[in-house]
Amino acid sequence: MADVQKTRAITAYVYRSGKAALEEYQIESEYPMSVMSLLTRLHETDPTLACRTSMCFHGTCGSCLVNVDGRDVKGCTVLVNPGETVSLRPHSKYKVLQDLVVDFRQPLAAEN
Amino acid sequence: MDKCDTTDVLVIGMGASGARAALAAAQAGSRVIVTNKGPAGRSGITLTAGGGTQAPFHPEDSPEQYYEDTVAYGYQLADRNLAWALARDSCDRIHDMEGYGVRFRKNEDGSYLLSRFPGHTYPRNISFHGGGIGMLGPLKNSCLKHPNISMLDDFLVTGLVTGADKSVCGAVGWNLKTGELTCLQASATILATGGCQQLWAVTDCPADSTGDGLALAYRAGARLVDMEMILFYPSVIVWPPAAKGAFVHYEFLAADRLDGDILDAAGRAVLPKNPIPVRDEAMRLMNRAIEEGRGGSHGGLFWYVGDSPKGSEFVAQQLDNQQYRYLQKQGLDPVRDKIEVAPGAHYQLGGVHIDEQCRTSVAGLFCTPEAAGNYEGANRLSGSALGGTQVFGYLAGRSAHNWAAAHGDVRPDRASLEEEEARVLGCMTAEGAAPDMAPLKAELRRRAQDAVGVVRSEEKLTAFMAWLDGAEEELAVLRVPGQKFHQPLMELTELKSLVETARLVAGCARIRRESRGHHYREDYPLRDDSRWLRHTCVERQGGKAVFSTCPICMERRER
After folding, report:
1. In this model, does residue A112 exceed pLDDT 60?
2. Chain A, chain B: beta-carbon pairs less than 8 Å apart
């Protein structure tokens, strides 16, 4: 772990339900960010971007379920490196409430 | 008001204690509505729990001994009736947990695997699989299955409503899924909303731990006690951002565990060894090192087990579990890296005053720990938090049921409903951008970390309270544009709760002119039993917070 690292841009294309389209965001970081911590940062700069912010810090609760580059994943354990670009959409298995926020009690398909 | 629902018992908050209260009330025969600010079972403080609880199962142990240990460890500030209820009922509530589907670690003969933690006379700590979700998941599923329980999650309670006699008759809230301002009329209301740890810049609790229930209780006129008593934890991670808020175990630094250190930026050990200091002492030493400028560039010190004499293979084995695997996924290597940490807010010891039926000082209003706060005093035994949620969740549910059965349907006063509706709609604006609340929130948290953190003083507390007045004025004029999933309304509400709670914490800290447990005053560094075997307390009178002290209930009614 180097003490001082150069910051590079992380580019995120994030789904906005109001526009039904992806919106581009950029932040500078010298350190890899989890998708969850990235969204926390983006939400601070744009409070209209709706996203889940509660975390369990264990990787178990599923509050962070999100679709990253086409895959449904837990956002808390997917890292984005400085210099990379990601595309964030709401998790595909639940009804969208707004932007990346889904209703976990309204699955789109029957769950096992 | 867009919608109105009626029920017997309203439970606000569906963490471990809210879920248990809902089940107790429902099983006794009440209709129950349980609300949760975030998604049920995927938010709140319970999920951060490690998986340990406690009860006097050991053959040489007894509720009496557990009671004695609880009172002693809490520095004598515990309400004796509540400490006894905890000791008396813990074993039964553990059996209930198993009945709901929580899986405990057991010995080959089927008895609970017990470990001994600091402060316990006998091994009393029991662990279950899965951490917080291993407990909350089964409780949530039991609530979903019960025909008497309706669950409203993604529901932001904004205020309590009262009858003409000022008793609580339910609550008003914003349904984040539908955008409906909703009145939930209830004969009995239970606050199960957890603590206010987000107030501090460094905390291992999630973003939704904003003390909303404390603000609700305070505004309804309830008494809160010992709000200065916050359990801090020494090694909460502050960097990198992906890991911020997780923690590494301070206890693992002990010579008989991993034999590591807390280092300053120059690589010097900050703490003595053999033994490592008790937590509150350790944090004062860490705090001093940080204030002296010996910390890292992100305000912390460095937890390090990388040069342990026990070797990295042994260390890696000990750290092979869910919590540390999660840290690895954030890009950290706890076995080898220096991890930047600082003392963080971990648990709320004080809170709303309750009796052994979980009644607050306001009729119709009940409360459970962590929001309730007169049984743990100035420190608590490790593992007691989860045990408390089940003991008091059950008692609150039963009491609320009995109250509802005795009082029948209640009607909120029209004036109270209209006032609450106006208060919520008055925050909204038809157009315009959502205000940027992040800078004010960050400043609040930074100031709280300094003024009501590990080291307090009259000067810092007074300055902080003066600043809070300005912050409150600033928040009063903010308006949020209307939308269905109203995250801006939620964040404005949360920030107001934090400012309100901050005043309660600071005011109580200023009253207690002594040091005891996790409350340390550098201007009054000694413990003073001649004056301070009392609760600090605060109530809203004439629209203002009035601080004083009140007696601790010393007489156990049951033997």
Report:
1. no
2. 128
Q: Strand B32-36 and strand B149-153: pairing?
A: parallel
B338 contacts chain A (CB < 8 A): yes
Distance from CA of B178 to the nearest CA of A (A): 9
CB contact under 8 A, B485 and A1: no
Say which DSSP state B207 is in: T
Rounded to whole angstroms, the Cα distance separating A77 from A40 reads 14
Q: Which CATH architecture has domain B429-549?
A: Up-down Bundle (1.20)
Looking at the complex, does the CB of residue B485 fall below 8 Å from at least one CB of chain A?
A: yes
Q: How many other C-beta atoms can be found within 10 angstroms of the C-beta atom of residue B118? A: 11
**What pLDDT was estimated at residue A111?**
53
**A56 and chain B: CB distance < 8 Å anywhere?**
yes
Pick from B505, B530, B500: which is nearest to B519 by CA? B505
Query: Whole-model pTM above 0.95?
Result: yes
Q: What is the ipTM of this complex?
A: 0.94
User: Which residue type, as a one-letter code, is found at position B309?
Assistant: P
Q: Do B177 and A103 touch (CB under 8 A)?
A: yes
Contacts of B210 (CB under 8 A, 6+ apart): B196, B198, B199, B494, B495, B497, B498, B501
Sequence-distant (6+) residues with CB within 8 A of B435 are A47, B478, B479, B480, B488, B492
**Segment (H or E) for B5:** strand B3-12
| Interface residue A111 vs chain B (CB under 8 A) | no
Looking at chain B, which residues constitute the CATH 3.90.700.10 domain(s)? Answer: 232-345
Q: What is the CATH number of domain B232-345?
A: 3.90.700.10
Domains and CATH numbers, chain A: 8-99 (3.10.20.30)
| One-letter identity of residue B23 | L
Partner-chain contact A53 B240, CB within 8 Å: no
Of A34, A58, A101, the CB nearest to B322: A58
Query: How buried is residue B529: exposed, middle or buried, by Cβ count under 10 Å (0-12/13-18/19+)?
Result: exposed
Q: Does B446 touch chain A (CB under 8 A)?
A: no
> Using one digit for the tens of pLDDT, what is the confidence trace for A48-96?
999 999 999 999 999 999 999 999 999 999 999 999 999 999 999 999 9
Strand partners, B277: none
Q: DSSP alpha helices (H): ranges in B358-516?
A: 384-407, 414-425, 438-451, 458-476, 487-511
The stretches in chain B having pLDDT less than 50 are none
pLDDT tens per residue across span A2-35: 455 689 999 999 999 999 999 999 999 999 999 9
Of A57, A76, A103, the CB nearest to B154: A103
The reported pLDDT for the residue numbered B14 is 98
Q: For B15-229+349-414, CATH number?
A: 3.50.50.60
